[in-house]
């Protein structure tokens, strides 16, 4: 019934050229099987069911998040969609667009995206910006690790989320007020759980809680922004500025400034991604290293060498040392590949598009399954194995490594995220070890992969080196 209802509008010729697949039940489509796979600890079984029934052709029809959808799971096809900004526009689910914001990167046109990216890239990923963030990152890492080592049993993931949120709040809002950070971090937790849920605005559903969280975030950020405008009137240009200051002042080539809505949506997007993704990847990288002693030793030796080679009078790391962390960079890339924080991306066809022998109909949604690409044994042999060495001399082909997306919509905060993770691992490898209390703990995969005990562990200090 579901197939007949949605395909009958296409006409016989277009219908015959659709890729194989199925559309599940009316209204819910394939969402039950999707949620079952991700909640039963076997997330890859969802796409595997299509591949087993319709062969590994890399493209299938389905019905997801309330829309007829084409699932794209092969590297070459993902690359084609990501690089084609004319025929494919953002097609994120209603829940994501409403919660992150219609003026954020997830919901705007290609031209608007280029403008916002141009205005915000230097304050986030520029050399000067990253250098200015580094000292605060180091100080926060050192003090946080020291505190954790005296706390005994901790939920490592929860503590990491607080840690990464403290850093991102400092970068964007210069805020370290404990009560404000705790309130906002809780709101972001609810927001994140609702972004890939069905847009059911009824009490008890994740989307309903997330909408309330967004309303709270908007109110807080609007209040901070209005207060900041008053403070900036009497502030000298030479005084230090955070990201909100930069967003309030930046102008494009026509003298146009960002609107309040644009600033708030940009901040909500960056603050969410900047602590959720970084915290999860930092946790998994630490866990993987601890589980693979040979990798731990290689990473530790590299960091010890970097520490020994630092000028005697230098206090702390610089971007020069960060760029020498070649093995650690491979550890992070391998963690990004296995964990798949962003396991799928969403587009929408603006016209009929032909891929190989199949058609993607105009206005249909397109899902790019990054997870399937990263776990493809033809691309990455033994894909479930943690092997940083697989990156030795490897330059991934376009479309085969997509942890931060691809094309013109590559995640604009990727350099900041990798810097933050690297600084944490540098100090952890040199001075600490992790002892998980439930190493066989089951993993949940929505909204991100996470152990259900939040990685219950003890952090132990093993040496007393100084900065």
UniProtKB/TrEMBL annotation:
Pfam families membership: p450
Pathway assigned in UniProt: Hormone biosynthesis; Plant hormone biosynthesis; gibberellin biosynthesis
The protein's name: Ent-kaurenoic acid oxidase
CDD domains, per database record: CYP90-like
Kinase among keywords: no
Principal location: membrane
Keywords: Heme, Iron, Membrane, Metal-binding, Monooxygenase, Oxidoreductase, Transmembrane, Transmembrane helix
Subcellular location: Membrane
Cofactor: heme
Stated family: Belongs to the cytochrome P450 family.
Keyword Oxidoreductase in annotation: yes
An example Gene Ontology CC term for this record: endoplasmic reticulum
UniProt-listed PROSITE patterns: CYTOCHROME_P450 (PS00086)
Highest taxon of source: Eukaryota
InterPro entries named in the record: Cyt_P450, Cyt_P450_CS, Cyt_P450_E_grp-IV, Cyt_P450_sf
């Amino acid at each position: 019934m579901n197939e007949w209802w949605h395909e009958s509008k296409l006409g016989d010729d277009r219908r015959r050229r659709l890729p194989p697949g199925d559309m599940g039940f009316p209204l819910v489509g394939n969402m039950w099987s999707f949620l079952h796979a991700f909640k039963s600890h076997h997330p890859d079984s969802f796409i595997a069911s299509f591949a087993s029934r319709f062969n590994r052709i890399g493209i299938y029809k389905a019905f997801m998040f309330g829309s007829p959808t084409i699932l794209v799971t092969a590297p070459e096809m993902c690359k084609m969609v990501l690089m084609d900004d004319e025929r494919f526009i953002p097609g994120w689910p209603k829940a994501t667009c409403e919660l992150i914001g219609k003026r954020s990167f997830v919901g705007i046109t290609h031209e608007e995206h280029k403008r916002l990216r141009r205005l915000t890239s230097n304050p986030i990923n520029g050399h000067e910006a990253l250098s200015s963030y580094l000292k605060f990152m180091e100080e926060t890492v050192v003090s946080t690790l020291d505190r954790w080592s005296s706390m005994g049993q901790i939920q490592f993931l929860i503590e990491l989320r607080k840690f990464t949120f403290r850093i991102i709040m400092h970068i964007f809002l210069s805020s370290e007020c404990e009560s404000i950070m705790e309130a906002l971090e809780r709101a972001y937790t609810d927001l994140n759980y609702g972004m890939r849920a069905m847009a059911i605005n009824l009490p008890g559903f994740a989307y309903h809680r997330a909408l309330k969280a967004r309303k709270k975030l908007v109110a807080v950020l609007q209040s901070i922004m209005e207060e900041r405008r008053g403070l900036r009137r009497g502030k000298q240009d030479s005084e230090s500025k955070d990201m909100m200051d930069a967003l309030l002042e930046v102008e494009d080539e026509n003298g146009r400034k960002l609107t309040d809505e644009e600033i708030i949506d940009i901040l909500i997007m960056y603050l969410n991604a900047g602590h959720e993704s970084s915290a999860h990847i930092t946790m998994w990288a630490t866990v993987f290293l601890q589980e693979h002693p040979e990798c731990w030793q290689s990473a530790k030796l590299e960091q010890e060498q970097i520490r020994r080679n630092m000028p005697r009078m230098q206090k702390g790391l610089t971007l020069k040392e960060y760029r020498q962390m070649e093995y650690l960079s491979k550890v992070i890339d391998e963690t990004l590949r296995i964990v798949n924080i962003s396991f799928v991306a969403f587009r929408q066809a603006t016209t009929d598009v032909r891929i190989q022998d199949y058609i993607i109909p105009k206005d249909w949604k397109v899902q790019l399954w990054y997870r399937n690409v990263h776990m493809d044994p033809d691309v990455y042999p033994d894909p479930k194995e943690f092997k940083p060495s697989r990156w030795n001399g490897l330059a991934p082909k376009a479309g085969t490594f997509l942890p931060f997306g691809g094309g013109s919509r590559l995640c604009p905060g990727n350099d900041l995220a990798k810097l933050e993770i690297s600084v944490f691992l540098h100090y952890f490898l040199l001075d600490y070890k992790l002892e998980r209390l439930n190493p066989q703990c089951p993993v949940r995969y929505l909204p991100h992969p996470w152990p259900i005990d939040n990685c219950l562990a003890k952090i132990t200090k093993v040496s007393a080196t100084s900065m």
